[in-house]
Specification:
Blueprint (H helix, E strand, L loop, with lengths): L2 E7 L5 H11 L2 E4 H8 L5 H10 L12 H9 L2 H25 L4 E5 L3 H4 L8 E6 L2 H12 L3 H10 L3 H6 L3 E4 L4 H21 L1
Helix pairs in contact: 1-10, 2-5, 3-5
The chain binds adenosine-5'-diphosphate.
Amino acid sequence: MPLVIALTGGIGSGKSTVADILAELGADVIDTDAIAHRLTAPGEAGAVEIGRQFGSEFLRADGALDRERMREHVFSDTTARKKLEAILHPMIRTAVDAAMEAACGSYTVLVVPLLVETGAYQGLVKRTLVVDCSETAQMERVRERNRLPEETIRNIMASQANRAARLARADDVIVNDGDLATLRNRTLEIHRHYLRLAEKA
Ligand code: ADP
């Protein structure tokens, strides 16, 4: 059984940056968010099924999921959120399994932003790597990256697990409170650690 690491962290913590560095170093990286985006692109199975079950007003003119509209719709409506998840989660899972089969590196990193919140992929992963940083750093990075208003960022952060809950699930932690060079060094250390574990597995 190959070594599979779940990578998670709050919005803006630096997960994607860490995933990119690990991929550069040779890990097989499977990003569940990227898969969800692919499945909801124009004409793809997820977008088609969402249009069928929610109505075409949830699709953009090109047939892609209207993410903004869906986000607003499911934010306060649990039934709608569960309906959306029932469409997408099995499709994502199938794609993850296929990507796992195709993986050929020393170890695989599965990026799951809401790992702690959803309890997903429990049986599949051996270890959980949490990217952690201060809430101030999260706010600043997301504001820079997405140009979102502070209140929207606060709402997203409030809907996610807090730092303590995430850290309680961690086998390994990357603290990302410094600069990018520091993050790169720490990620290299973790990569070496996983190579050693993969050899023993
Ligand atoms: P996530 O995937 O967890 O939402 P990202 O990896 O996309 O977070 O990082 C959020 C933003 O912050 C990106 O624009 C990224 O380049 C930047 N960033 C991440 N870590 C650092 C850091 N240590 N120093 C400066 N910028 C950073």
